[in-house]
Specification:
It is a multi-pass membrane protein. The protein is an all-alpha fold. The protein has helices at residues 43-54, 62-98, 105-147, 154-169, 174-200, 228-240, 249-252, 261-287, 301-335, 346-371, and strands spanning 7-9, 19-21. 62% of the residues lie in helices and 2% in strands.
């Protein structure tokens, strides 16, 4: 393992044990004329990466959470949690500007809580991104199942998703991934927009009874007071949909001008708040309690297939970004303060590809741990569309 960032104890009040980074060791990636120059990311590309990291699989579950909380409670949760997560991203940036050696939130934890804090947060950081990437595998395999009319076992589609995510996440620089995120965001945004328009064109929700009277189930306040567990689960689903701002911190190290981070965050999170609020409220207003989860199935099977086909690349790139961020953390952790970090050496490439492979293996393990029974239930691939 490479050496850790240099730390020196700054004068603190008696009893304090906090550390601060030496000024000469501010940036992880320095200028390089004969190696890999990582600091090439413009702020619009950074903003698009933030948009794609956030506007991912989480948006598909918000309408269901709105049904549990009601239109008022759901709307307040969307606006409040998104604003809170935007604020925390700015707080992390300000901390990082004071301690420029921080490549990730694990480095921040090192300054605040020492070695123990760094190791604990580092494990949680990798684990959190692995779980998010695993959810992308589930979303991609669901999309492929839908598009193929369940012609193959879900496990095989999950393997296709895993290979696609692993291949794209092995791209070394965020600047090279950046242009793909533009395509990916347009992909998933268009897919969700198709569903939003689709539900407004139906006489009744696709999942509602085809004939006779029915109750829509759209309420400003929930008709039945939710239990604490149900309410917390619903609002936490909304919180999680915009909460991965910890993954924004490693992006700063690859920006041309780190000072543009706030601009990129405010643009991205403001759009996220707008999209989450409007899209989720419209879907809930037209589908009520008949909203599908994931919400791409809310406008019926035909629109569902179109939406999954259009949004497939966006779902794949969601998993790519999560796994790339986790692999980049391990890569920097291993090669930091060595000549191999920014040189095209055998150690550089073997470490990077090894980190990518290790993260993707863990993503696969996380998927299998929740889907192990599916290997023995391929008969479930009927034409019944599971929401």
């Amino acid at each position: 393992m490479g050496s850790e960032p240099k730390i020196e104890t700054s004068p603190e009040p008696e009893g304090s044990s906090r550390d601060t980074c030496v000024v000469d060791d501010l940036e992880v990636f320095g200028p390089s004329s004969d190696g890999v120059h990582f600091r090439t990311l413009s702020w619009p590309s950074a903003s698009m990466i933030f948009l794609k990291i956030t506007f991912a699989t989480g948006v598909l579950s918000i309408p269901t959470s709105m049904y549990q909380l009601g239109a008022v409670g759901g709307s307040l949760s969307v606006l409040g949690w998104t604003a809170w997560n935007q604020y925390t991203a700015v707080v992390m940036y300000n901390f990082r500007q004071r301690h420029g050696c921080c490549h990730s939130i694990a480095d921040m934890a090192h300054i605040i809580g020492g070695r123990v804090g760094k190791e604990v947060i580092g494990v949680l950081f990798v684990l959190g991104n692995v779980i998010c990437a695993g959810s992308a595998i589930i979303a991609v395999s669901t999309a492929l199942n839908t598009l193929s009319h369940h012609s193959a076992c879900t496990v095989w589609w999950a393997l296709v998703a895993w290979i696609s995510i692993a291949t794209l996440s092995s791209i070394r620089k965020l600047e090279q991934i950046g242009w793909l995120t533009w395509i990916a965001f347009i992909s998933i945004f268009t897919a969700v927009f198709i569903v939003v328009v689709g539900v407004t064109q139906l006489d009744r929700p696709a999942a509602a009874p085809s004939t006779g009277p029915y109750e829509l189930g759209f309420y400003a306040l929930p008709p039945l007071k939710p239990t604490f567990a149900v309410g917390m689960l619903a609002t936490c689903n909304i919180f999680v949909a915009s909460s991965n701002t910890g993954a924004f911190v490693p992006v700063i190290a690859e920006m041309k001008n780190p000072g543009d981070f706030k601009k990129a965050v405010h643009v991205a999170m403001s759009l996220i708040m707008l999209f989450y609020f409007t899209f989720s409220l419209v879907v809930y207003a037209y589908c009520g309690k008949w909203v599908a989860n994931p919400s791409l199935g809310s406008a019926g099977p035909t629109v569902k297939m179109i939406a999954y086909g259009v949004g497939l690349f966006g779902l794949i790139m969601s998993g790519c970004l999560y796994s790339h961020v986790a692999a980049k953390y391990l890569f920097v952790r291993l090669l930091r303060n060595t000549s191999h970090l920014q040189r095209n050496t055998l150690i550089h490439w073997s470490t990077w590809l090894g980190c990518t492979y290790a993260v993707c293996v863990e993503i696969n393990n996380a998927y299998e741990s929740g889907q192990i029974g599916s290997a023995f239930s391929c008969a479930d691939n009927s034409n019944t569309i599971a929401e």
